[in-house]
Design a protein that fits this description.
single chain; alpha+beta; 4 strands; about 35% helix
Amino acid sequence: MKIFITRHRGFTLVEIMIIAALIALLATITIPQMARSRVNANEVAAVGNMRTLYKACLGYYGANIPHTYPNALTDLTLPISDPPFISIPLANAITANTAMQGYYYVYTLGADNESFTIVAWPSSFGRTGAKNFFIMETGQLTYTATNAEEPDASSPPAPY
């Protein structure tokens, strides 16, 4: 009497389909979370850059006599400021095309040279950031969560 032992080589179609479904399920869960974490990281970086710009403007104000805030962000770098208060890439992040970590910064000097405002805008709203940030010479950092609304001093405080 002969006994035949059959060996299965490879996986069945059902097993492969189950694995493919599990991979697809994991991908649908993790990919949106990774995108949202990228937006959160850009927002935290923008808040840090806003604080850096704020402190650089205060340092520029204290270092110059007569006291005045810079005319533009590029005044905070070489050759105007030696040593520089901020990095050149941060000073040049003034348009959506030159954004740094998903945000660009609009600096406005007050008419009396005794005040300034800085607004951080995401270069692609919803993709690189979901909040607009605002800071002025008082140091109060605020935000808005809509693309059309410009933040100002009356906006809610930034959560970071």
